[in-house]
Amino acid sequence: MTTLTRLPPEAAAAASDLAAAPVRAFMRRCSMEATRPNDADAKVLRGLLPAGTEIFLTAVPKRDRGEVVAAARAIRAAGLEPVPHLAVRSYLDAAAAKEHLARLRGEADIRSVLVIGGDLAQPAGDLSAAWQLIDSGVLRQAGIERVGIAGYPDGHPLMSDEELESTLVTKIAAAQSAGHEVEIVTQFCFEAAAIIRWVEWLRQRGVNLPVRIGLAGPTSLTTWLTYARRCGVRASAEGLARRSGLARHVFNSVAPDPLIRALADAAITERLGDISPHLFSFGGIGATARWAAGAMRGPITLGAAGGFHVEALKSLQA
Q1: What's the average model confidence in pLDDT over 150-173?
Q2: Spatial separation of the C-alpha atoms in residues 208 and 214, rounded to whole Å
Q3: What CA–CA distance (Å, rounded) separates 91 from 26?
Q4: Total number of domains constituting the chain
Q5: What average pLDDT does range 75-94 have in this prediction?
Q6: What pLDDT does 109 receive?
Q7: Nearest-angstrom CA–CA distance, 14 and 157
Q8: 211 vs 29, 163, 259, 265, 272, CA distance in Å?
């Protein structure tokens, strides 16, 4: 008969802390999405996140551009890095985009942007695809150094896989030709295996750019499913309710901890290259930041079947 030796509490705690180290290291590279952050939100983020953390500012159709500039100013004043989405279909032309960029650079020292097509069914002007704005040269003229482009591990509701690959290659080539640093920022996905397969697919094709992995931040399951349907990530959402590690209860908060743990473990092997987590704040930017701050600093309790539990922090001093 084999006798199991139980570790003393101090040794058990040390072993658990060591096992959780990859999760903390992965989460410390986290970036976030915010839709309409105001000055109060920025102060909350400043009290929770490391200086320089990238806060992506979501493009809302027909949103006043002055509001985006104000949000970027607030994030910059908080010691964080604002990264606005540029939805090209919302601009009348490249000149209009250049004017917006001039304000963002002049008032918030913007150096990085995420360029997307946008949600408008009909373009406001003569720009309909992200690569057109990148290729126009206005980003470089505005002093933009790094350009993010969108990736879709779960596919796209309106584009085939072949179209997605062609578009991705075109955007990368346009950005690199213009002298920009390039990174890929993915749509959120609920399946770690699908994300890992997609990143491996990129690497096999020689695309070795940094990839920010889009993940839905902690909120209710119903909110997750609502955004999944709205954003066209049905494939991974279909199995979401069956995943006990994610869908703990339809009325309770759920979090992406099983995905983060799987990705953190994969990141250790370095086979996926440069990857980092990118949280969509569907449950509110403050709640998302508190959860992320807890995961960055611990203590973290690892689950036996994957995932982990973490206590949300109220501030860096908590």
Answers
A1: 90
A2: 17
A3: 36
A4: 1
A5: 96
A6: 97
A7: 46
A8: 11, 20, 15, 16, 9
Confirm if 298 and 310 have CB atoms less than 8 A apart: yes
What CATH number should be reported for the domain holding residue 54? 3.20.20.220
Q: How far apart are CA 50 and CA 71, in angstroms?
A: 19
> What's phi and psi for 66, nearest 5 deg?
-65, -30
Is residue 302 within 8 A of residue 19, CB to CB? The reply is yes
pLDDT digit string, tens, across residues 209-242: 999 999 988 887 777 677 666 666 655 555 555 5
Predicted model pTM: 0.88
Q: Is the pLDDT of residue 266 over 80?
A: yes
Quickly tell me which residue has 């910059």 as its tokens.
Answer: 76
pLDDT above 70 covers a percentage of the chain that reads 84
In a domain, 6, yes or no: no
**How many other CB atoms are found less than 10 A from the CB of residue 61?**
12
Residues paired with 277 in a beta bridge? 213
**What domain range includes position 198?**
26-310
pLDDT of residue 159: 83
125 CB burial (10 A radius; 0-12, 13-18, 19+): middle
Question: Nearest Cα to 195, choosing from 255, 228, 151, 238?
Answer: 151
Residue 318 falls inside a structural domain = no
- DSSP 8-state assignment for residue 103: H
Average pLDDT of every residue of the chain: 86
d(CA 11, CA 249): 34
- In tens, the pLDDT along 137-153 reads 999 999 999 999 999 99
In a domain, 301, yes or no: yes
Identity at 313, one-letter amino acid code: L
